[in-house]
Amino acid sequence: MAEPPELAANLVQLGERMVDSTPQAAALGFRLVSVEAGLAAMAVPPDDKLVGDPETGVIAGGVVTTLLDHVCGLAVTSKLLESGVFSSIATLDLRIDYMRAAEPGREVVARAHCYKLGHTIAFVRATAFDLTEDDPIATAQAAFAIGSPGRLE
Amino acid sequence: MSDDRAARLTAMLESLPYIRFLGMRAELAGDEMTAILPFAPHLIGNVVLPALHGGVLGAFMEMTAICQLGVHEPARRLPRTIDVTIEYLRPGRARTTYARAELVKLGRRIVNVHVEAWQDTRASPVAALRGHFMLSPISPLPAGEVETR
Is B13 on the interface with A (CB under 8 A)? Predict the structure, then answer.
């Protein structure tokens, strides 16, 4: 999807800000992979301090949860930006299915698609994988509330 | 028995790097565990409010479920998460968060767990989690069967 150059630059700026200026995202080492209106991808590099099972060295499910929540948020805000809206958003619910363990030592990538943006609710699907998207670690489905003023993210 | 449980819980909390990253602790009353997540600046997801990252709340509740299962099933390895549904009820403020897990249905292999997280008032939870977890076998795996995690 080709966006006007100005929108594309603003989207990248939005994505960079979400990974650099959010303390938890920075602490986990999140990296922006790509962002278009309604489509976003982020990655978390392997890190010993994020291991959830010391016997296997597999990354904690909670890190994948946070990555999925974060990338879903960017998918929504990028779609809002395309419509010229600057509302705050908040996760209402997040459902995650874990297909398999991540390979230890591999970067985990999550890709999200905001497939419906309403006035008050946005719906998002996301997939986390460590090699190819057709062999997912986890899939997610989320709903976000848009623009409850002053309270929500 | 209760000393064993407490020792196992302490060992579990100390051995998991991600639990140390979160700064999560836990206390036992008999077999009932209360998980504690003291506030720390790196847990923030929204700097304006400020509020805890939704992923942190989800992760904290998932670890609460796993640790409560560890207390209940001391002979097994860590359970594996099958699925979770996280409901966000209120912004998680910049203060200590608590969570308790209820093992709603303990099957032979699959357990249904409900978790609630709160801050000042237990009756006003900030988030809830419902999830299914796969129990690891107690005895060593039969030949030819491969454990994936």
Answer: no
Q: Report chain B residues whose CB lies below 8 A from the CB of A58.
A: 149
Q: What is residue B145's predicted lDDT score, i.e. its pLDDT?
A: 52
Is position B71 within any domain? yes
Domain encompassing residue B48:
2-134
Q: Give A93-147 pLDDT, tens digit per residue.
A: 999 999 999 999 999 999 999 999 999 999 999 999 999 999 999 999 999 999 8
Query: What is the number of structural domains in chain A?
Result: 1
Residues 6+ apart with CB under 8 A from A9: none
Q: Cα–Cα distance between A79 and A73 in angstroms, integer?
A: 10
Is B97 part of a structural domain of the chain? yes
Per residue in A20-68, pLDDT (tens digit) is 999 999 999 999 999 999 999 999 999 999 999 888 999 999 999 999 9
Question: Is A151 a domain residue?
Answer: no
Q: What angle (nearest 5°) sits at the alpha carbon of residue B62, between those of residues A68 and B43?
A: 65
Alpha-carbon distance B59 to B22, whole Å?
9
| Interface predicted TM-score of the whole assembly (ipTM), two decimals | 0.92
Chain B residues with CB under 8 Å of A24 CB are 42-45, 52-53, 55-56
> Quick check: B78 and A153 CB within 8 A?
no
Three-state secondary-structure class, residue B78: coil
Please list every residue in chain A whose beta carbon sits closer than 8 Å to the beta carbon of residue B41: 23
Q: What is the CA radius of gyration of chain A?
A: 15
Give the nearest partner residue to A62 out of B45, B63, B82, using CB atoms.
B63
Q: How many structural domains compose chain B? A: 1
